Amino acid sequence: MSSLRPNLAAAYDPEHFRQLGHRLVDQLADHLARTTRRDSHQGSAPILMSRPL
């Protein structure tokens, strides 16, 4: 059981979660920038969500 504690602590570390969240948002923004730039020349862009926020 004690071998799980470091893993659990890392999984619930707020700073680690924040870093992962920022990395994910950066990846999504990069993807959106690439696809809208590429697809704008073809007249269509990919659908990212089924309904507006």
Q: Could you explain how this protein is built, in words?
A:
The protein is mainly alpha-helical and 53 residues long. The protein has 2 helices and no strands. The chain is rod-shaped. The termini are far apart.
Give helix and strand order, one letter per element, not per position.
Answer: HH
Number of helices: 2
Profile the largest sheet.
Answer: none
β-sheet strand percentage: under 5%
Secondary structure elements and their pairing?
Blueprint: H1 4-11, H2 14-39
Summarize the structure in short.
With 53 residues, this protein is mainly α. The protein has helices at 4-11, 14-39.
Structural features:
53 residues; mainly alpha; 2 helices
